[in-house]
Amino acid sequence: MSDMLSFAYPWIKAIHIMAVISWMAGLFYLPRLFVYHAERTKTGDATDATFQIMEVKLLRAIMLPSMITTWLFGLALALTPGIVDWTQVWPWSKAAAVLGMTWFHHWLGVRRKNFVRGENVVSGRQFRLMNEVPTLLMVVIVFSVVVKF
Description:
Helix content: over 70%
Distance between the termini: 29 Å
Oligomer: single chain
């Protein structure tokens, strides 16, 4: 198994990077949709229905498959012999940030369901602030992997 992972390493890494880019795009865009959804619609109007369609398609068709692919190929990278030195800090800081990113993804999913039920209580301003979460986590992940502190 480890020989196969070593052989496929460049392919696994390439797919992982593409999946991360797709996932991050969704993590940046969905909160922005929520800002406009919260500020410019009323429950049950046509714009509300349009936002709900956009949000569910983004979450289910792009973000969820990208998150799963990111996790699967990221774990494959972590299991490739000689890639990760678990005695260093960087794999743990990256893992913590990826868990934070996954929590944020699920938090967004709960917020989407609140819009569907007409129970959103988060303001556009609060969604704008939450939109910074993936940026901060991305900074931790990139510095962890590139600098390897």
